[in-house]
Amino acid sequence: MFEIGRLCIKIAGRDAGLKCVIVDTVDKFTVLVDGQTRRRKCNIKHLEPLEQVFKISKNAPRAEIVRVFKELKIELKETKPKKKSERPIKVRKKKQKPVKQSAKKIEKEAVKVKPKPQQEEKVSVAKEPVKKEEKSK
Amino acid sequence: MPRPRYRSRKLKRVKKKVPGGATKLSYKKKTPKIHKCAECKKELKGIPRLKATKAKHVPKTKKKVSRLYGGFLCGTCARKKLKNQARLSK
């Protein structure tokens, strides 16, 4: 009954209601099926045989089964195995080290920057002591 | 006399303690019944009893079985139905 090439309908599982062809017999109770279902081992109890039997070789490749289903006017979905994508590895951010500058450059920058901060510092120094005195009173 | 919408028994009545100390009636939505097979009336497995408000936050795959007729027929009834369909198609 369950010989190679027999058309079946799967009754149980998530592939239930889909047509498949028996490709190989594994055991007294188990067969290998392929077609609209995934290519997988299957218990005979989970299959309902139909009338048609196709001539296919044992362990037939997918291309041969696509040809068989074309006779039934059923187009099979071609699914390629997913490529494993590598997980992005997180890299810790490195703290930027202070760049060593030559003595001449530091002097040049100091000359440019000097006039502004000197004025601000004076103001800030003048304000702070006033507050402390108020609190102490 | 309760308000008109609370007179029907579609809401469940729950006694709750109020911060003042007294007990008061409050109304609560009932949990849905267990889902059953449409043919043999057996209880279906793998389908949670959720209110509509909570069910919408649960993914579809957790609310039904991934088989054909999953969530509507039990496994044995689905198998019988598919067998009959296959035999009639011959």
Please give a structural write-up.
The complex is a heterodimer of chains A (137) and B (90). The longest helix of chain A has 22 residues, at 115-136. Chain A has a five-stranded antiparallel beta sheet with strand order 4-3-2-1-5. Helix content of chain A is 31%, strand content 21%. Chain A has helices spanning 62-71, 103-113, 115-136; strands spanning 6-10, 19-25, 30-35, 40-43, 47-53. The termini of chain A are far apart. Chain B has three helices and two strands, in the order H-E-E-H-H. Chain B has 90 residues and is α+β, with helices and mostly antiparallel strands. Chain B folds into two domains: 1-30, no CATH class; 32-90, no CATH class. Chain B has helices at residues 4-7, 52-55, 75-89; strands at 11-17, 23-29. In chain B, 26% of the residues lie in helices and 16% in strands. The termini of chain B are far apart.
What is this entry, summarized?
The complex is a heterodimer of chains A (about 140) and B (about 90). Chain A has about 140 residues and is an alpha+beta fold.
Key attributes of the depicted protein:
heterodimer, A: 137 residues, alpha+beta, SH3 type barrels, 2 domains, five-stranded antiparallel beta sheet, 3 helices, 31% helix, rod-shaped, B: 90 residues, two-stranded antiparallel ribbon
Q: Note the total helix count of chain B.
A: 3
| Main structural class of chain B | alpha+beta
Name given to the CATH architecture of the largest domain in chain A: Roll
CATH class term of the largest domain in chain A: Mainly Beta
The total beta strand count of chain B reads: 2
What's the helix and strand layout?
The complex is a heterodimer of chains A (137) and B (90).
Chain A: E1 6-10, E2 19-25, E3 30-35, E4 40-43, E5 47-53, H1 62-71, H2 103-113, H3 115-136
Antiparallel strand pairs in A: 1-2, 1-5, 2-3, 3-4
Chain B: H1 4-7, E1 11-17, E2 23-29, H2 52-55, H3 75-89
Antiparallel strand pairs in B: 1-2
